[in-house]
Write a structure and sequence with these properties.
This protein is α/β, with parallel strands linked by helices. It folds into two domains: 192 residues, 3-Layer(aba) Sandwich (Rossmann fold), CATH 3.40.50; 70 residues, Helicase, Ruva Protein, domain 3, CATH 1.10.8.100. It contains eleven helices and nine strands. Helix 4 links the parallel strand 3 and strand 4. Bound molecules: S-adenosyl-L-homocysteine (SAH). S-adenosyl-L-homocysteine binds next to strand 1.
Length: 278
């Protein structure tokens, strides 16, 4: 069975190189060929693609992507794994292993992102990724995290993460992935997520909206007038101005958790006009 062979090869590589896996780096490798194929197919790869892979591990995805594309940059932080990866891809001349911390290093130019990322840095990594321009990303996330990532206004999992993500990209879960698809088997299930960056038309900038979102989402279950009151107090806005701001604030009675992107945009623009910048 195929499944058996990728699993066995992974075990062999780890054994022959005396690798002790580091839990804190989220080292758990994809060994189920069905999901490797699904992830690669969803990436719609072709010979013109420059692919970025973050957290390449022992290269189980890397070696499958390499024959399909022009170039693949494989980022791996762990020195031992980066060495193993270099040896494994020695015959693939379009693979470049970049040994660095994916949160710190600059990425080379890429148009597709295919990665089973380290789950412990999912949040900052997603923000970093979304600051780059690219066509399409197919990423493996922890299932619970993926649900927060794709949540829409009013959903139970709607959060700062969902808003900040949807300001920059369309995201959807394309598959549920059971934990047995990995070795060693993690304690959580996963999801394959499709990310398509976009430029949306807004009145305020993404940064301005993010700023307001970061200030009001800690009061997710409160109504807008109340959340904004907290925010304005923090900015030391005087009583008179606050009263004036609240007098005709849009969505005053709507709860923060029910505010979608366009509503948040309108609210941000209103506040900016009133206080002349954040
Ligand atoms: N994509 C591989 C490995 C997934 S495990 C596979 O699916 O088989 C996650 C990998 O990310 C590990 O190899 C780990 O060493 C690496 N990693 C963890 N933190 C990292 C960071 N900050 N920058 C780059 N790689 C990191």
């Amino acid at each position: 069975m195929h499944n058996y062979s990728i699993l066995e090869e992974t075990k062999r590589i780890l054994r022959e190189n005396n690798v002790w896996l580091k839990k804190r780096l989220g080292q758990s490798f994809i060994v189920d060929p069905e999901y490797i194929s699904k992830q690669i197919q969803a990436g719609e790869l072709d010979k013109n693609d420059a692919v970025l892979e973050i957290g390449a591990g022992v290269g189980n995805l890397t070696v499958k992507i390499s024959p399909l594309v022009k170039k693949i940059y494989a980022i791996e932080l762990d020195h031992n794994l980066a060495e193993i990866l270099r040896k494994r891809v020695a015959a693939h001349n379009n693979v470049e292993v970049l040994e660095c911390d994916a949160l710190k290093c600059e990425y080379p130019q890429f148009n597709k992102l295919i990665a089973n990322i380290p789950y412990n840095i999912a949040s900052p990594l997603t923000f970093k990724i979304l600051s780059y321009k690219f066509e399409l990303g197919i990423l493996m996330y922890q299932f619970e995290f993926a649900k927060r990532l794709i949540a829409k206004a009013g959903d139970e999992n709607y959060s700062r993460l969902s808003v900040n993500t949807s300001l920059k990209a369309d995201v959807q879960i394309i598959d549920f992935v059971h934990r047995t698809a990995f070795y060693p088997k993690p304690r959580v299930d996963s999801a394959l997520v499709k990310i398509v960056p976009k430029d949306i038309k807004l009145n305020s900038t993404v940064e301005e909206i993010s700023q307001v979102v970061n200030e009001i989402f800690p009061y997710k279950n409160k109504k807008i007038h109340s959340a904004i009151k907290h925010y304005m107090n923090k900015l030391n806005v005087n009583k008179e101005t606050l009263k004036q701001i609240l007098s005709d604030i849009p969505y005053s009675e709507v709860r923060v958790r029910d505010m979608n992107i366009n509503m948040l945009d309108e609210l941000t623009t209103y506040i900016l006009n009133k206080i002349g910048g954040i």
